[in-house]
Design brief:
By secondary structure, the chain is of the alpha/beta class. The protein is built from twelve helices and ten strands. The longest helix is centred in the last third of the chain and has 19 residues, at about 375-395. The model has no long low-confidence stretch (mean pLDDT about 95).
Length: about 400
């Protein structure tokens, strides 16, 4: 099993194609080789002419904790090259940034979810490379959520930094496959190279997307485990609510909710009454926690934790987006007047509710709030979108 970066540093024929060219690296803390050497260090050791580096949201070092916490540009202390921030004064590479290299190596570990901003960073890089006549090489990495797709399609006009294009929440692609789709969908005239993985089998045991012999490293501060990566396409919706997603604890974004004024056992029972089939593929456990920061900081919260791992994980049955939607529906059923939706600036969107930005439209929120709507209504809507998305991406998939 080889990731794209491992192939580049071990295959001389690939590296020779970079001879005489200035190279930039887009990376974060999870951009490492099989031997846990950071990609920047590995490329320099192989005498690749790295002239700049770029950090996405949370920074090249991965030190920025929350959304809309920006990173500044800097000079790398070891190599003396500029490190440009793509989550600071700008989120789209500027002309000056693009002038720093001829080939841009994109080596970001994704979570397989549309809202994870590295997807949009990839699109912006491809668009600017097309304008500047630069090359983009995607050093491919696994989608830890595997190949299943889930969720409603983002609606036209609902694009944002967490919604690059009309795709579903759990997109089922690697970044290399996504790059191919972006180029086709947006008709980009850009030199794109996908350095494909070798030996990756999404959807197959034992790893189901993530190879068991590879160490998990946080691609962002709150992406602390494979369990989180699998659940994220659902639990990320908590960011648009008043409910805690577990930030300020050691297991962020692995809970369906936490709150000081919600009875988790009652919610779990109501979920089982409404749509038990949506609860398959994982274990759900009542838990208690007190966040040290963020929502409900210093307050004891009752919640439900998801275990999409070990003996409890069924890769083909687990549907995190529906599971999270079901938790919202159960809370609304038990607490009709609960102030569920959080109204605040979310990823530079100021005029829409965060939950709508996250879902690429109001459909999920409207379904939760409609006392007459049942699980079949949401399932019908999502199933049609999922089928359409599978058909759309089929020509761009690389791995069986």
């Amino acid at each position: 099993m080889k990731f794209g970066i491992d192939r580049l540093i071990t295959e001389e024929d690939l590296r020779k194609r970079l001879d005489g060219r200035r190279v930039a690296l887009v990376a974060h803390p999870a951009s490492v080789t099989a031997g846990l050497v950071h990609s920047l260090d590995a490329l320099v050791a192989r005498e690749v002419n790295v002239t700049s580096a770029f950090g996405p949201q949370h920074g090249l070092k991965g030190d920025k904790q929350d959304n809309m916490v920006e990173t500044g540009d800097e000079i790398d202390a070891q190599y003396g090259i500029p490190v440009f921030s793509l989550y600071g004064e700008v989120r789209r590479p500027t002309e000056r940034m693009m002038d720093s290299a001829d080939v841009f190596l994109f080596d970001l570990q994704d979570l397989g979810c549309r809202i994870y901003t590295f997807v949009t960073t990839l699109l912006y890089l491809l668009e600017e490379a097309a304008r500047a006549d630069k090359a983009v090489w995607v050093l491919d990495r696994p989608n830890p959520a595997g190949g299943p797709v889930e969720g409603t399609l983002l609606r036209a006009g609902q694009e944002s930094f967490v919604g690059a294009a009309e795709m579903v929440m759990r997109h089922g692609m690697t970044m290399g496959e996504m790059a191919r789709w972006f180029v086709d969908h947006f008709k980009l005239d850009v030199e794109l190279e996908v350095v494909e993985m070798r030996g990756w089998s999404p959807g197959k045991a034992p790893g189901y997307g993530w190879p068991e012999d590879r160490v998990w490293i946080n691609p962002s501060p709150n992406a602390a485990s494979l369990n989180m990566a699998r659940a994220y396409a659902g639990t990320v919706m908590l960011e648009g609510t008043t409910l805690s997603e577990g930030r300020g604890t050691t297991r962020p974004l692995e809970v369906l909710f936490g709150a000081p004024d919600v009875d988790a056992k009652a919610v779990l029972a109501e979920m089982d009454r409404l749509a038990p089939v949506w609860m398959r593929g994982c274990a759900i456990r009542e838990c208690w926690f007190e966040p040290t920061f963020h929502k409900h900081a210093g307050t004891l919260c009752n919640g439900l934790m998801v275990h999409a791992e070990g003996q409890f994980y069924d890769h083909h049955a687990f549907r995190p987006w529906r599971l999270q939607a079901l938790a919202f529906k159960a809370i609304r059923s038990l607490y009709p007047d609960y102030p569920l939706w959080r109204d605040f600036a979310y990823e530079y969107e100021y005029d829409r509710l965060a939950i709508d930005v996250i879902n690429g439209g109001p459909a999920l929120r409207e379904w939760v709030d409609d006392s007459e709507a049942d699980p079949d209504d949401l399932d019908t809507l999502a199933s049609a979108d999922e089928a359409s998305w599978r058909e759309t991406i089929a020509p761009h998939l690389i791995y069986g």
